Amino acid sequence: MGLLKNIIKSKNGQKPNLPKRLFWDSNIDKIDWQKGYLGVIDRVIERGNKQEWEEMIRFYGKSKVIKVLKSEIKYLPDYAIENVCNYFKLKKEDLACYARSQSKRGHWI
Questions:
Q1: Secondary structure, 3-state, 15-57
Q2: Tens digit of each residue's pLDDT (9 = 90 or more) over 73-90
Q3: Which residue has the higher pLDDT, 77 or 98?
Q4: What is the DSSP letter of 11?
Q5: How far apart are CA 72 and CA 67, in angstroms?
């Protein structure tokens, strides 16, 4: 997960109340939660539970999370796409990751 590498701690010190287990491959004390929003949102969507999703939304705001899902996250596993659509009442086609996966051609066999 390269999205969280080389991100430094934010100057204002504000951070979401998310568990270290979600960021096992990063030093959680050095994450810049504002600059690294894309990696954080991606990680929480893929690996977080309902309470962690709610904390992510509290910290970043629902509109920012939805904007990121619609235009910036290029890959999510199928289960995460389903969860996102159910939670936010979105269509799969609204998500950047779904549109991208549909544009990939498979083998013709």
A1: CCCCCHHHHCCCCHHHCCCCCCHHHHHHHHHHHCCHHHHHHHH
A2: 999 999 999 999 999 999
A3: 77
A4: T
A5: 8
